[in-house]
Every structure is written in C-alpha cells, then in structure tokens.
Automatic annotation (TrEMBL):
A Pfam cross-reference name: Rubrerythrin
One Gene Ontology term of the molecular function aspect: oxidoreductase activity
Record field: transmembrane: none
Annotated protein name in UniProt: Rubrerythrin family protein
UniProt organism field: Odinarchaeota yellowstonii (strain LCB_4)
InterPro entries in UniProt: Ferritin-like, Ferritin-like_diiron, Ferritin-like_SF, Rr_diiron-bd_dom, Rubrerythrin
Amino acid sequence: MSETLNNIAKAFIGESVAAVKYTLFAEIADKDGLIEAKNLFIKTAEQEKIHAKIHFRLLSELCAKRNTSILKVAVQLPVELGDTLKNIELALNGEVYEFKTMYPDFAEKAKKEGYEEIAERFQALARAEEGHAEKYNSLMKKIKTLK
C-alpha cells in the first residue's frame, strides 16, 4: 500500500475519532454549564465528520482502483478524557498536531508520490484544523480568565 493511501486512512480514522470525542466533550461541557464550549465542540465535531467523509470517499475511490476494499492501518489512539477545560486543551493539542505536523507531512509525502491533488487537499485541511485550533485556544483563554 502506498504511504499516501495509508495516510488517508490514518486521517479518516483520526477525523472520525475526533468527531466522536468532540461529541462526548460537548456532553461534558453541557454538564459543566459551559454552553459556549458545548457549542464549539458540536460545531467542530460536525466539521470533523465532513473531513472524515472526504477521506473515506477518497479511500474508496483509490481502493477500487487497486481492487481492494480492506486496509490494515496502525494508528495511535489518544483516549484521555477530563473536565471541560482539560478537554479543550486536548482538542487544541490535537488540532495543533494536525495542522503543524500531520497534514503537512501527509501533503509532502503525497507530492513525492505524485499525488498533487491529494497534497493540496491535505494542505487545505491543515488550514481548516488551524482555524479549529485558534477557536479552542481563544475559548481556553476566555475560560481561564473567568476562573
């Protein structure tokens, strides 16, 4: 399997997991009475689902060309859970990793393998994740000043 195909699969898994985690984080924020955090988690979860769908469609297309429908992928799975402030920090760290490291690395490898369009998608997703990080960072600062 090409490294790019493997990276798309990892991105699909990561975005899917993020969507579920953010939904759970929203429930915790709701219980903590932090409605702004709840709403941001819900909104970001929806956006992560869109990212996951993009990756899944691309995976399906590329796998069909290779006559396969099953991929074996090894991933690291962060499973930490906390109160709302901790969850915002976890979300921020995940988004920063995606826009500073993961997607730029994936884009570079896609370019090297001749997948220019996929590299551009990865770069666009890095920009989207940077926007998520900025929102989480802003919210974290706001909540910390209220405490």
